[in-house]
Amino acid sequence: MARVFVTGATGVVGPHLLRRLVADDHDVTAMGRHDPDPAGDPDVEWIRGDVARGRGLGPAWRADCVVHLASQSRGRMDEVNVRGTAGLLASMRPEAHMVYASVVGCDRHPLGYYQSKWRGEQEVLGAGRPWTIVRGTQTHELLWRWLQGGPVCPLGKGFRWQPAAAAEHADALADAVRDGPQRRQVDVGGPEILTSEQVVGTYEEHTGRTAPRLRVPAVGRVARAYREGTHCAEYARVGRETWRTFVVGHARDAVR
Ligand SMILES: NC(=O)c1ccc[n+]([C@@H]2O[C@H](COP(=O)([O-])OP(=O)(O)OC[C@H]3O[C@@H](n4cnc5c(N)ncnc54)[C@H](OP(=O)(O)O)[C@@H]3O)[C@@H](O)[C@H]2O)c1
Fold this sequence. Notes:
The protein is of the alpha/beta class.
């Protein structure tokens, strides 16, 4: 059993990770900027905090392992992804293990968010602490949110995707906690690489809805990187749940 501190626990991946960490019998403290779901797991201790402001980081000092999920994909991203990561690392004991959730291809893809995540990785590498970086491809849940209407829909023509279940990302992060510091980056991706057209086609077929029109320009360096699949990881640890299985499972809710 380890004492594990999880930031960004209220996001898409966080709840899956908390469930797995509790099942693995860890002593879990989770941070959120707002109060947790009252129906949440009573075995998880919650603390309110903000990594950009350096608030609520006390449990990092008591932790054997910190899983850093908190991230910001818009606005002043570096305040969370880079300076927040540095502040969190400085709050940990020197021997504690940092598991940093990052994005596949962030070192090569020019999207501002991915670049910010890559700068966050550099903080982890430079801190001289035991570490594991778990880079994921986009989750089914994220694509679903885009297709449900926003706030942006970056499914440009011919872009490639390797969507994966958030629960499977969470499993890879929990495995990193269990296995201890690997001092390497682990890539995690979904079972298949699809084009935007395939992603949208499956969505429309099973929900009966029309996907929102592309709201990002399909030209330029970022579009090229998406078309080339720089954010995909063919040789990643591959998950099992396909996009089709996910969509079929969610379609009933979508038409309500
Ligand atoms: N989902 C994906 O497709 C995907 C793919 C690859 C990698 N990842 C990585 O996996 C991690 C988790 O992703 P996710 O999809 O679960 O993220 P998410 O749904 O966007 O949630 C982000 C989390 O970060 C928290 N957060 C944001 N700013 C914060 C701040 N200043 N202080 C403290 N917490 C803050 C949010 O809290 P609030 O609830 O208060 O906003 C939320 O809990 C991220 O690091 C992401 O880069 C995700």
